[in-house]
Amino acid sequence: MAKVELKQPIVETIADEVKDAASVVLVDYRGLTVAQDTELRKQLRDAGIIYKVYKNTMMKRAFEGTEYAALEEHLAGPSAIAISKEDATAPARILCKFAKDAKALELKAGVIEGSVYDTAGLTELSKIPSREELLSKLLGSLQSPITNFARVIKQIAEQGGEVAAEEAPASEEAPAAAEAPAEETAEATEE
Questions:
Q1: Cα dist. 74→26, 113, 147 in Å?
Q2: How far is CA 57 from CA 14, 62, 63, 74, 184, in A?
């Protein structure tokens, strides 16, 4: 078997992984300890991100003719690839956070939703909260006015109940007083 035939399945695997990806980020992992690499892989796996090390030539072949072809110029030296199918900013967010503690990890470049970003761009994108965080903030913002409105209505109802209770005896006395003159007038007409 020729070497090309042996490498073709790997190129096809890479192409399949990046085909429907929301984001692809390249990193230089040289200098990471085994413990750091294991922790990084665990964090990425927990977030649903594919993280693998491939030869640069195989990634170049897989990227040919796709929107990821712009990453070819960054494929120098050892490279690992982080691929996310759902959350576009998750790889950048996790890798940048991890790189703060593990100085050996270097972000090279990435393609996020069709746009190519360098290291500075990925760092800025990493500051964007996750989709779940943004949705929870939106939900909190929507619930806040409704909650405040319900609280005010409840206070008004409680105060209104107290006012009605205080006014009720006064209004009960008024009909009795109103009936008294009517009785007196009835007695006066009989005499």
A1: 8, 18, 51
A2: 11, 9, 10, 12, 112
Q: Give the strand order in the sheet containing 106-112.
A: 49-53, 80-84, 23-28, 106-112, 115-118
Distance CA 159, CA 148 (A): 16
Convert the pLDDT of each residue in 70-128 to its tens digit: 888 888 888 889 988 888 888 888 888 888 888 888 888 888 887 888 888 888 877 77
Rounded Cα–Cα distance for residues 6 and 118 (Å)? 32
Which numeric CATH code is attached to 3-128?
Answer: 3.30.70.1730
Task: Tell whether pTM > 0.70.
Answer: no
Taking each helix axis from N to C terminus, what angle separates 56-63 and 3-19, rounded to the nearest 10 degrees?
60
Domain range summary for the chain, segments of one domain joined by +: 3-128, 136-191
